[in-house]
Amino acid sequence: MNENLILKTLHIKPFLFLVLAEFFSMFAMNLLNFALLLVVFSISKSNAAVAGVIMAFTIPNIIFGILAGVMVDRWNKKNVLFLTNILRAFFVLPLAFFNTNLALVYFFTFCVSTITQFFIPAETPIIPLLVRKDLLLSANALFGMGIYASTLLAYALSGPFIYIFGKTNIFFFLFVIFLIAGFFISLIRASKSKIEPKINKDEILGFREEAKIVLKLISKTKSLYHALFSLTLTQIIILVFAAIGPGYASQILNIDIESFPIIFVTPAILGVIVGAVTIGSFFHKTRKSRLTKVGLFIMGFATLLLPYGSKVESRSFIQLLNYYLPHLLTLNILHIMVVLAFILGVAIAFVFIPANTTLQEEASDQSRGKIYGFLNTFFGIVSIIPVLLVGGLADIFGVKIILTGIGIVVLSIALIRTIMRE
Question: Which class would CATH give 3-187+204-420?
Fold first, then answer.
């Protein structure tokens, strides 16, 4: 991939509108998520309560993930994307009035997440229907930058936006953003032969048969299940960081939780962008499985170092730098954390982009939605225990021990996959 291919991809108007819609949609969804994390933590002062918000987002994955994937493969994906954005806009409104009631916060979060289960199997799988195969890696690099930039930007702005809009008006703002996403979806113009699923009504299978087919495809296609595993692991790591982020800010960095998203997420945004551009410019001919393993190694090392910034700060070479550059910059734990956040962003790009491209290349138009639906369900099942445990264990043992454990686990997984030579 090069600059010319990126520009060619952006000149495809239906894809450009999709990227804009995806940016606003993901921005709204993640701003909602992170705003709720801060609101709940400010109410309860508990990492476990914060984990409850995350569970309200992830449990619908388990219940509706595969079902949504099966249904979306039978529907017009543009219509699905439009309706899910409009519905989420109206389900966000009640949170403007009930954001101090934890039970109702969990309930409406669950409702919005349930609608999102039908959005996800239509969002990324529609890309191969709008761009040529030779532009697929370029499209995923751009789409990946949009997804993670909007996600991380939402995290960065969640604190300031709550301060500006307040705990009530922030949800009216989110209502408008979801409507804007729906508007850009409505601008997508593509022939029905491209976006309308080609299904013979006499050959429609039942849910169980459809699920068995996709499971068989995944189990027999090595590259598919490795890509699914990598994407799931990355999403779990992001959720875990979201759950213990406020605790990390207060226990280790000794800063206000409202300022943490800005100083942690902004460098991570830059890391994702740099990682995506690097993959497209230098590694488009490298095996995608190799890129994901590199990303996992980077992620593991960065996570392992995060809680030990104070020890790095005390090292002689840092003190030497501070001695010679006292008027320009005094390096401390926050600067070290910023560097590690940037590295984490690069790692996310190295996992997300090649893994998503693999899924789109290996799956047919008739099975792509089901595979992403399976991804959501699998992600929900395997994430529920770690997220619940991390919130409670962070309250008991502290964030430092939890981050150390996560770093060791990710490094171990990367090492095992390297030894296996997938």
Answer: mainly alpha
